[in-house]
Automatic annotation (TrEMBL):
Similarity comment text for this entry: Belongs to the RbfA family.
Function: One of several proteins that assist in the late maturation steps of the functional core of the 30S ribosomal subunit. Associates with free 30S ribosomal subunits (but not with 30S subunits that are part of 70S ribosomes or polysomes). Required for efficient processing of 16S rRNA. May interact with the 5'-terminal helix region of 16S rRNA.
Gene: rbfA
GO BP term, pick one: maturation of SSU-rRNA
Organism: Spiribacter salinus
Name by which UniProt lists this protein: Ribosome-binding factor A
Amino acid sequence: MANDYPRSRRVADQVQRELATLIRDEVRDPRVGSVTVSEVKVSRDFAHAEVYVTGLGMEEADSRAMVDALNGAAGFLRGQLARQMRLRKVPALHFYYDPVFDQGARLNRLIDEVAPDNGSQEGP
């Protein structure tokens, strides 16, 4: 999906902002907890949007279950987007698990294990 077109990028940014709010306020599925919408990629013809999400404080399996729940609610969310955005065509939403936050947390744990915080020592 090409995002190197200014209008595609603007639409993707707006979809990302609106979806973050809609998921937080409108989705009542218990599998959907605290969600971060990390990236949205909109196709050039605005027919499809890839939405990358991760659950904050969730294990990978729970995050993947959350993605399944969001894909189940994609039609509802698309309808809500259509009411809020002024687009001729609102893209079909496809949710994907984004492991970037989990990888970052894993790296932080590894760094902490190798180099523990030396805040109590005074520098030269």
